[in-house]
Design goal:
about 900 residues; alpha/beta; 5 domains; seven-stranded parallel sheet; 36 helices; about 15% strand; helicase activity; hydrolase activity; helicase
């Protein structure tokens, strides 16, 4: 390429503006479509730009270069490349380029800041004075913001610094007029003194520091200078004025004297925290004491030891704590009077021996205030247990925490024993199990019952969060038997549960506590107003059992009564705290509030707050305060300290045991089988009765083989209806939320499977119907985000084997299987829960399916759940199978016995209760 060609080089720029004021730029030679190399473009644009080391610091990606708007204004306000001319590749690019060139003129104008106005909202330009177009004004504004950010100046600080910029412009470093540097020096107090000295010093090339003689500190700069430096007096005065113009720690006048100012500790702190960073950003030299650069923060140690006089009963929770205080600084003990003096003097920097230490005076004052509150007897054992004692006195930290704490907390032996008992929930006052209980409690269940009693006795709500299968229900029923055997109990207890488990509660109350009178508050014909009030007033019921939906609808009526206790089962149902349901439940009144849940709630923070707002209103404060204190720092910032603090705060209120807890010594059977009772919905019940009436009429006209065939067909159709009305009616697919509303069995299976997955366990779900499996799969996916495979008879062997291997490797938590396709020949021992969605008339078929998990290789306790709809053929056939268990295996293991029932037996089987 000849020199003449070089002189004629014209580049066409393509510019793409980003959201942060940065531009992506590429170029092609005018008249040519091919982009030039990014390195070549950088060499042209930044060839004389020292701040980017002539383009070495300029980012590049995919053939484009990236430049900030302040860099572009700097480039286009300087002398351009002598051989290169720039234009836009398109009209839009030319508009951008013209705006940059226009803005660049103001950018290099010394009067730039005289056109700027600053406020709390940001900065703006007086466009009338500048004559800038709107686009050019925006570019200058973005560039100013970028430069301020690079200097470490926030927009909040800019208004106060604007006069400084208007007078001195952008920081330009040390002036070249002076053969020495003008600096500021901070000197610590002498021994037994409290004032620091901030003064101006001159530093020559060898690093020697010069300050005026003591007798001349009040003289003018010119008089204080030696003869050879007097010609620089005016320059020194201007540089000193520029430097102190940014200070906030102390107001210094830019007069004709050298700076010689005494500062207290508080002013020094502001100088170090606020003024020093600006001095460094503006390249104003500051000399600090060498030790201050690595000053040790707060070496004052405080040791508190709490104690109480004695522990006799749970009432001692109200016993006032006494505290013993000890102080030390740098390993040396100091007495309370010395500590008091440090607080009174508002000291921040303390010398101990040859070392200096920084103390936070606000923290010291806070400790003194707390000591005064302790002297007034403001905290009790109860406050210590529930972490109401301020953290400055009793800090929360892990025993494994290696950091040396500023406040060391200890307890006297008697208090430590009490706190251990309460926190670990061991050794609580013994309570005799009510004689009316029709069950034998395991040791851990006895502890749970005693803990519920203890929490009631001390007026504390409780969260019983044992794993599924550990018997939360029997522990609560034992507690209710005890409460309703007390002479002072004169109102019923309220239990609120999902509709899908109401049948279970009815059966379990009848089984374990038949002496308790249970009133079911549910359905269109439920008691209301005066009728309900009469039940309460006349003490016609010990237990009122209702559902979340009913309690929400009747919330105003229910909130008018004070119940002996209010228990919510599946407590996660109130997690959405803004819903009508959650608000209605949290407005109920009981002498004791209990929440039951089988899922861990420590990491679901909004759910945690809602449950605690129910059991112990106000304990975690308002939701806004809880969000600021815990949700934001934990969920956004993942701060371990806040996690520890929250765990410590909720731990006394919550009892959670898992099946894997070795301390429980469960000795559980290898397999536990239990029925899960669920009621039909109103829609199902109506369809059920209608279909039975219709079929009975047909049966009266048939005999022999035709009658047997119709019975089997009818039983199959009723089983489908018990599963879901959509199966019975052969309806098309619908949204998951709608599906679960129409079938309590569907809702219960889905929620139980999700709970099992949330606990890190795995389960198998068996069903006879392809449609049921597909609906379960859809609901788990849409409602809980769980992708569930469904193994059917049509699945190829290779795919089937791959799914089995994946499940055994723990790759998914829930596996749905067709009873016929998955009931035999599979090894699925990773599952420790088996859910039978619908009952088979032949128990052997169910047992074969259960044995997919309960077989050689299974090391975990297997929990088998058999879902039974209350009052239907499912419940009645289940009862008949139990009754016939003593008969011939051949009889039971065939479904033919169902067709041999006489008219009376068939009538009883089909009647819906």
């Amino acid at each position: 390429m000849t020199d003449s060609n070089i002189l004629q080089l014209a580049l066409e720029l393509t510019l793409k503006e980003g959201q942060d004021g940065a531009f992506l730029i590429c170029a092609n030679v005018a008249g040519e479509s091919k982009m030039i190399d990014a390195d070549m473009l950088v060499s042209y644009l930044f060839y004389s730009d020292e701040p980017t080391i002539y383009g070495m610091l300029v980012p590049q990606r995919d053939g484009w270069i990236e430049a900030t708007i302040d860099e572009l204004l700097r480039l286009f306000s300087a002398t351009g490349h002598p051989y290169v001319q720039y234009a836009g590749a398109t009209d839009a690019d030319n508009v951008i380029l013209d705006g940059i060139r226009e803005a660049a003129k103001l950018w290099q104008d010394p009067a730039l800041f005289s056109h700027i106005e600053a406020s709390a909202e940001g900065l703006s330009f007086d466009m009338g004075q500048t004559g800038l177009s709107e686009q050019a004004g925006r570019y200058v504004s973005l560039a100013v913001r970028g430069q301020l950010a690079a200097l470490g100046v926030s927009m909040a600080d800019f208004p106060t610094l604007l006069p400084h910029f208007q007078q001195y412009g952008w920081p330009s470093g040390e002036t070249t007029k002076l053969p020495f540097r003008v600096a500021l020096r901070l000197t610590e107090p002498d021994i037994d003194e409290t004032e620091w000295l901030l003064e101006t010093v001159l530093i020559n090339e060898r690093g020697t520091q010069w300050v005026p003689a003591v007798r001349k500190v009040s003289a003018s700069i010119e008089e204080a200078l030696p003869a050879k430096r007097k010609p620089y007096a005016k320059d020194i005065q201007e540089r000193q004025a520029e430097m102190i113009g940014i200070f906030r720690s102390v107001e210094l006048q830019a007069d004709e004297q050298f700076v010689h100012e005494f500062l207290n500790d508080a002013q020094v702190r502001v100088f170090i925290q606020e003024d020093l960073p600006l001095c460094q950003a503006f390249d104003y030299p500051v000399i600090l004491p060498a030790w201050l650069k690595s000053v040790t923060e707060t070496k004052l140690k405080i040791r508190t030891s709490a104690g109480m006089q004695s522990y006799r009963s749970s009432a001692s929770l109200d016993q006032v704590l006494s505290f013993d205080w000890q102080f030390s600084l740098a390993g040396e003990n100091i007495d309370r009077e010395q500590f008091q003096r440090m607080v009174d003097e508002n000291r921040e920097y303390i010398r101990a021996g040859d070392e200096w230490f920084h103390l936070d005076p606000a923290w010291l004052k806070r400790i003194r205030e707390l000591m005064e509150q302790v002297d007034d007897g403001e905290w009790t054992v109860k406050d210590l247990l529930f972490h109401e004692v301020p953290e400055e006195i009793a800090p929360v930290f892990d025993e494994e925490d290696e950091d040396d704490p500023l406040v060391a907390f200890s307890m006297q032996q008697s208090l430590r024993q009490v706190m251990t008992m309460l926190q670990e929930k061991k050794g609580l006052p013994e309570v005799a199990v009510p004689g009316a209980l029709q069950a034998e409690l395991r040791p851990y269940q006895q502890e749970g019952f005693e803990w519920l009693h203890f929490m009631r006795d001390n007026h504390f709500g409780a969260v019983l969060a044992d794993d599924m299968g550990l018997g939360k229900t029997v522990q609560l029923i034992t507690y209710l038997l005890y409460v309703h055997n007390l002479p002072e109990t004169d109102s019923p207890s309220l239990i609120i549960c999902p509709t899908s488990v109401m049948g279970n509660w009815q059966k379990e109350l009848e089984r374990f506590a038949p002496s308790l009178r249970v009133h079911v508050h549910y359905g269109a014909n439920r008691s209301r107003d005066e009728q309900f009030e009469s039940i309460i007033a006349n003490r016609e019921a010990d237990i009122i059992l209702t559902t979340y939906g009913t309690a929400t609808q009747d919330g105003e009526m229910l909130s008018a009564f004070t119940f002996a206790s209010v228990t919510i089962d599946e407590a996660q149902n109130i997690k959405n705290l803004q819903t009508k349901q959650s608000r209605a439940i949290r407005r109920l009144h009981g002498l004791h509030h209990i929440a039951l849940t089988g899922t861990p709630i420590e990491n679901r923070l909004s759910e945690l707050w809602a449950i605690f707002d129910f059991i112990h209103k106000g304990y975690l404060g308002s939701f806004r305060k809880f969000s600021d204190e815990f949700i934001v720092p934990i969920e956004r910032d993942d701060l371990e300290a806040e996690k520890r603090k929250l765990r410590a705060r909720i731990q006394p209120f919550m009892m959670r045991r898992t099946k894997n807890d070795p301390e429980l010594r469960l000795n559980l059977p290898e397999k536990l089988e239990q029925n899960e009772y669920v009621p039909l919905t109103t829609e199902q019940a109506a369809l059920y009765e209608s279909f039975v009436d219709e079929t009975k009429f047909k049966l009266e006209t048939l005999t022999g083989f035709e009658r047997k065939g119709l019975i089997l067909k009818m039983l199959s159709r009723l089983k489908q209806l018990c599963n879901h009305p959509a199966l019975f009616l052969k309806e098309p697919q619908a949204p998951a939320a709608e599906l679960t509303k129409r079938s309590n069995k569907m809702a219960r299976i889905v929620s139980m499977a999700a709970e099992i997955a949330a606990n890190g366990e795995q389960c198998l779900i068996f069903t006879q119907y392809i449609g049921m499996g597909q609906m379960l799969r859809q609901c788990l996916s849409e409602l809980h985000g769980i992708d569930v495979p469904f193994l059917t008879g049509s699945m190829p062997k290779g795919q089937r084997d791959a799914l089995v291997d994946a499940f055994q490797n723990g790759e998914f938590p829930v596996f749905i299987l067709s009873l016929k396709a998955g009931g035999t020949g599979l090894n699925l021992t990773q599952a420790n829960h088996v859910l039978h969605a619908d009952r088979w008339w032949n128990p052997a078929v169910e047992n074969q399916a259960t044995d997919r998990a309960y077989r050689i290789g299974q090391t975990k306790f297997v929990h088998v759940h058999k879902f039974v709809t209350v009052g239907t053929i499912e419940e009645k056939i289940d009862q008949m199978l139990v009754e016939k268990a003593a008969l011939s295996a051949d009889l039971i293991h065939s479904s033919q016995w169902l067709t041999e029932l006489n008219d009376r037996e068939l009538e009883d089987l089909l009647t819906f209760n």
